[in-house]
Write a structure and sequence with these properties.
Elements (H helix, E strand, L loop, with lengths): L10 H12 L4 H8 L3 H14 L14 H4 L1
Helix pairs in contact: 1-3, 2-3
Amino acid sequence: MIKNERRCYDKFFKLMVVELQQKGKTLVEVGNDLGIGVDLVRRWSRELTLSKSGSFPGNGRQLLTEEQKR
């Protein structure tokens, strides 16, 4: 039995995925073209819409404001 390994995607890949979706490709088309799940495309698109520059900080780390750091 093969263990499923969690794949990591860098910020530039995620931005490219969202850009393809925003240019008119469907979630399914983007997912199939790049071999990723539709749920990832949807999540990354939503995250970029909500967080803008704070999106995709890497390694599960959230970018905190100065006030949140205190």
